[in-house]
Design goal:
It comes from Clostridium uliginosum. One of its GO terms (biological process) is DNA replication. It is built from 5 helices and no strands. It is mostly helical and 251 residues long. It folds into 2 domains: 108 residues, no CATH class; 102 residues. It is rod-shaped and about 170 Å long.
Length: 251
Amino acid sequence: MTDYYKILGVEKNASKEAIKKAYEKQVEKIKKEVVNEKRLNEFLKLFDQAYEALNSLEESQLMDKNETLIIQPQEVQKELEVNNKSKNYISRNNSKSKGRNASTKRNDVSQKGVSKNKDKKNKLNDNKEEKARKQKAIEKSPKSNTKQIFDLLMLPFKILALPLIAILSVIILLCQIINVVSWIASKLLIIAAISVGAIHLYQVKTGQTINYNILILAASVLLASFFLPYILRFVLKVFEKLNNVLKDFVF
């Protein structure tokens, strides 16, 4: 036997309005408490049965003398099973929530410990880097002082080297011009030397006496005109290298 009055939480002499309000209250409450859809439907079905039974109390033949509603044993068994399942479900949810809270607390504690260890390691690394920077600064300071003294000593020599750089720059420019001109001049001198030597040999062949001075001069001009461009290029490279060395020293 199941008392529908207790299910809805009303008195046996309650009015229809009170029964309706109690029904709506129980439905709203069970929707908030029960998450499982199947369990929720079972509870709602039970509340619907109680509400319909109490509303049709005058027409129903299910009431006994004590005004207690009588339902079939199978329905009673189902309702008891539903109640037991709901209680078990709620207890399981509570135990799970407690377990989750405990695990969450443990995770928070472990994360805090890990973060503290990381902070300590970072501080140690920062201290090591700071010490290394200070050590490097200490090591560099004597070197920097020595370099400054050396620069001061070399300053007069750098000032004297400036006019030399200017003179060498002018000489290099002239050598470049002469190098271009010498290439053309060397070709002309080669032609002239060969021509003079050939003419003199022709004169000797025609009966004139040989003049070795003319032949030596022609040969000398020929050799000089042949090697002159190479000599000028070598001189130009020497001046350029010397000028670059002075520039590196001064600047």
